[in-house]
Amino acid sequence: MDLAELAATANECHACPLWEGRTNVVFGDGSPTARVMIVGEAPGKNEDLQGCPFVGAAGKNLDALLGLAGLRREDVYIANVLKCRPPGNRDPQVEEIQACAHFLHDQAKLVDPEVIVTLGNFATRHIIKTDQGITRLHGKVHQVGKFKVLPVYHPAAALYDRSKQEALEADFRTLTQLLS
Ligand code: SF4
User: Which residue's C-alpha comes closest to atom 6 of ligand 1?
Assistant: First the structure.
């Protein structure tokens, strides 16, 4: 199965109750052969409406951060742990993750990146399997199976927090070193 076939499967997915509230499945976007995969938590309101991950202010911040690492959005592959929007942007629930995580797993297998950048607490804990928070984990590279995993603050959380933004910018410069 390739990414397009996997996306078609997700578009028909009713495996957890989130399908009822979605406008669009937000499967993922970007280069199918990217060296870097970016993983967020779940679609928000704008992503649900447009069917694309990281649109709006957080997406613009992500684009600028990628630029610091010498990357454009089309150079990377972006996906969320959950493909459908939780109501009111609440935290994903365990059953939803259990139902949905196989899509992300298969995306990582198909794209086969060198580095996975996890955005914020939720995606980081899901990928690294840890209880530690992003404040302690960000900027430190973890090996998960064959992948280097770089946790960073969520670009939305940094929009109004200068110290988080500075940490994010430093961590994306670390990404440059990982790719050199
Ligand atoms: S969130 Fe995932 S598991 Fe739930 S309906 Fe959407 S695609 Fe299916």
Answer: 84
Q: Where are the domains of the chain?
A: 3-179
Q: Does residue 18 have its Cβ closer than 6 Å to ligand 1? A: yes
Which pLDDT tens digit goes with each residue over 43-84?
999 999 999 999 989 999 999 999 999 999 999 999 999 999
Q: How far apart are CA 118 and CA 41, in angstroms?
A: 9
Assigned fold of 3-179: Uracil-DNA Glycosylase, subunit E (3.40.470)
Report d(CA 154, CA 1) in Å as an integer.
31
* 164 in contact with ligand 1, CB cutoff 6 A: no
For residue 80, give both structure tokens: 């969320």
CB atoms inside a 10 Å sphere around CB 39: 27
Amino acid letter, residue 140: K
Q: What is the pTM of this model?
A: 0.96
